[in-house]
Automatic annotation (TrEMBL):
Descriptive protein name: Cucumopine synthase C-terminal helical bundle domain-containing protein
Domain Cucumopine synthase C-terminal helical bundle: from-to ranges: 160-300
Top-level taxon in the UniProt lineage: Bacteria
A Pfam family hit: Cucumopine_C
InterPro entries to which the protein is assigned, alphabetical: Cucumopine_C
Amino acid sequence: MRQLEIEWVQPRITVTADLTDDNPDLVDMVWNRLVPYNSLQNHALVSGDHLYHLLPDPEPIHRAAEYKMRDRTEAPDGTVFLSQLQHIGIKYGPLTEYLPAAPIGHVVPDDVDALRSAGRYCWDAAYRTKEVVEVRVRRKGDRVDDYPLPRPPRVGDPDVQRLIDEMHDATRRSWTDPPEELVDMHAGRIGSRAGSRDQYFSTLVFLNGEVRPLGYNALNGLVRLVRTTDLPLETLREITPGFIRTPAEFLGYTGLHALEDFTGRSVKALGALEDREEYFALISTLALYTNMLNTWNLHLFPWDHGKEYPYPRG
């Protein structure tokens, strides 16, 4: 039996998960390619008692599941899922989101209570305290002292390679430490003063509404296209700007200047790419940077306003 150790550095909780044979191809990928790694721990905001975190590798985006549970709400507590949104998630209590999901493992029964404790702690961190919770995942029994962010493939053009290196380094710096631009935005330090009538709460709402689909849908979708279709490089060059340029420009206006710069330079770099592999290297690096921003924005957003919108009783 292959087992993972999942550790939350704060609140110092570690659980063991058995990897199962429901999706052997996905399990092999996790075991042989992904671990060990670390990430910022997120808590679900609309699904229920569910933890998830961003993976540092684009492989899950385009790797199809062999089996999906039709209704994840029926999964036992402790079920571990792998998502094409580049997440590993763990159910630790009641869920409302019934959408299909691909199981890859299960927290061992003796550790489910500890998992629930970690879940409650992570909810409080996301909803109220904003404490950063780092999650570390490794093969059980392995001693791991370092969790480096995997480097993307290299390309031939030195200017494009320089851009990829810059995006990778920016992602690495903020992998478990919040990006300064997002910290400034959530403190109201926005140079453009985006936000009608001298307030920035609506800007934070629109930030969430733009950065999430830019990463999950547009950029991840392009990564999936280059890995699962035979679209020629020229077609990929033509369609890419239409998916990513406009939202990135808006996000630059709201305060994410590095994202706007990286996206604009990536669009310009498309003509220098030699083949589809170089396209993958460029776009997957931009996608990971964007999805990293999304994880931090979801952590920093003032979700405690939710107490003002309780569901009606009865």
